[in-house]
């Protein structure tokens, strides 16, 4: 099996949340000579050097400064670190029928019924006490163990489940995590379960499965995630079965492309946004000045002026990388007649007449020419004309920056399921395309 796909599986397995994906990016960037910049300090940048900056522990911008960036501009690949998920609510523990449940809310647009009857764990960020209230410790945790499950209601008690299958978002997504383990009579059981010392505590659970004390934890930002590992599937390992391929596959491809690049005349940049799945309206999302501010800060630090910024933007190009819909063999009638990507047939150029994707003929032509010259297969996607599709970071980021852009992604089945299906051959081809985009004249 190709090395790139194997590395992708490892990256996904190490990234149960956007926080962990960003941490994996940081570790790889540092290993390959990228220097971390402190946004709160004065920078002293040099041409031909490698840098990165983090925001919210969940978004990263990495770049290699160009030798002639004033005349050659920036080449930027954007992707996003987040995926649809179930987020644990504040004060989440519910005691019902002697069983303890974790209350959740929906992050983004997951296919909810795919979360049922799966082994789940918890991962995210915890905030710890410190002497300075404005400089609290923040740590990432991954409890890793099979700790919870969202059980289906038996078909005997829910006879329409295969006809309707509607999920009760209020209580149907609470995760069963433990129960009162005793054989007391009912009166004694009620007495004990109402005693605070006998109540299940999320902080105590964290203490049990991590190195942090419950008494030191001020707050948590945790997500449930399926513990089943990403893996190959099919008689020839032609498929990748894993959650979060949308959009960790593109994050990993952009990372590989940037870190394999040398110094060019133009500045090469990879932007790993967060919060795309909930609209990007956050300081670390695409609908923020994050990337634009960093671009300005880079060029001014290297001696450019305000007028140069506008010149540079005109000469720059954004490749927005997010997964695309592969044609489903059981429901092929849901797709456009001609624009129907297949798994393992190469990257997908995404079009939309209302510019939910940013691709136009001019920007597509650049990528098509690069792929034709280098024998890289490619496909096209457009929604069926009577269907309203999703969008991505491309239009938002391109609007924020005022930059020409194209939307590209690899084909994927079961997008937004807790277990998506991708093609293992496509990842290598995407890395090739991204590398050419960053390096070719």
What does this structure look like?
By secondary structure, the chain is of the alpha/beta class. The protein has two domains: 3-83 and 243-439, Aminopeptidase (3-Layer(aba) Sandwich), CATH 3.40.630; 85-226, Aminopeptidase i, Domain 2 (Roll). Helices cover 27% and strands 25% of the residues. It has a nine-stranded mixed sheet with strand order 1-2-3-13-4-14-18-16-17, sandwiched between helices. The chain is globular, with a radius of gyration of 23 Å. The protein starts with a helix and ends with a helix.
List the main descriptive attributes of the protein structure presented here:
globular; Aminopeptidase i, Domain 2; 11 helices; 6-stranded antiparallel sheet; 441 residues; 2 domains
SSE layout and pairings?
Layout: H1 3-13, H2 18-31, E1 35-36, E2 50-55, E3 59-64, H3 69-72, E4 74-80, E5 85-96, E6 99-107, E7 120-128, E8 137-142, E9 175-179, H4 186-194, H5 202-208, E10 217-226, E11 231-233, E12 239-242, H6 245-259, E13 267-273, H7 290-301, H8 306-314, E14 317-321, E15 324-325, E16 348-350, H9 361-373, E17 379-381, H10 393-401, E18 404-409, E19 411-413, E20 420-423, H11 426-439
Parallel strand pairs: 1-2, 4-13, 4-14, 14-18, 15-19, 16-17
Antiparallel strand pairs: 2-3, 3-13, 5-6, 5-10, 6-9, 7-8, 7-10, 11-12, 12-20, 16-18, 19-20
């Amino acid at each position: 099996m190709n090395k790139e796909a194997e590395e992708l599986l490892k990256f996904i397995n190490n990234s149960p949340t956007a926080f962990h994906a960003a941490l994996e990016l940081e570790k790889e960037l540092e290993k390959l000579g990228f220097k971390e910049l402190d946004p709160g300090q004065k920078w002293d940048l040099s041409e031909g050097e490698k840098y990165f900056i983090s925001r919210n522990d969940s978004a990263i911008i990495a770049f290699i400064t160009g030798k002639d960036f004033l005349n050659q501009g920036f080449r930027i690949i954007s992707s996003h670190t987040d995926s649809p998920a179930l987020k644990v609510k504040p004060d989440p523990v519910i005691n019902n029928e002697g069983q303890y449940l974790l209350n959740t809310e929906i992050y983004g647009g997951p296919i909810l019924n795919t979360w049922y009857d799966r082994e789940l764990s918890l991962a995210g960020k915890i905030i710890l006490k410190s002497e300075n209230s404005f400089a609290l410790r923040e740590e990432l945790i991954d409890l890793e163990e099979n700790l919870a499950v969202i059980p289906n209601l038996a078909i005997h008690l829910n006879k329409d489940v295969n006809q309707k299958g509607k999920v009760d978002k209020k209580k149907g997504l609470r995760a069963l995590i433990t129960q009162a383990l005793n054989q007391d009579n009912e009166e004694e059981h009620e007495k004990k379960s109402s005693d605070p010392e006998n109540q299940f505590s999320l902080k105590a659970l964290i203490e049990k499965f991590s190195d942090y004390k419950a008494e030191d934890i001020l707050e948590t930002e945790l997500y449930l995630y399926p513990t089943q590992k990403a893996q190959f599937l099919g008689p020839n390992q032609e498929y990748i079965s894993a959650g979060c391929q949308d959009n960790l596959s593109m994050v990993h491809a952009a990372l590989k492309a940037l870190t394999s690049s040398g110094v060019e005349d133009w500045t090469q940049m990879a932007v790993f946004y967060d919060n795309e799945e909930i609209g990007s309206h956050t300081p670390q999302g695409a609908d923020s000045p994050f990337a634009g501010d960093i671009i300005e800060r880079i060029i001014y630090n290297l001696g450019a002026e305000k007028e140069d910024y506008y010149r540079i933007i005109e000469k720059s190009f954004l490749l927005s990388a997010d997964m695309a819909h592969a044609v489903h063999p059981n429901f092929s009638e849901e797709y456009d007649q001609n624009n129907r990507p297949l798994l393992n047939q190469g990257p997908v150029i995404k079009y939309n007449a209302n510019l939910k994707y940013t691709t136009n003929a001019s920007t597509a032509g650049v990528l098509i020419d690069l792929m034709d010259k280098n024998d890289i297969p490619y496909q096209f996607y457009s929604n069926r004309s009577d269907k309203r599709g999703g969008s991505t970071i491309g239009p938002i980021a391109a609007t924020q920056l005022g930059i020409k852009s194209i939307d590209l992604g690899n084909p994927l089945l079961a997008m937004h399921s807790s277990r998506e299906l991708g093609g293992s051959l496509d990842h290598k081809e995407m890395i090739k395309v991204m590398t050419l985009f960053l390096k070719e004249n």
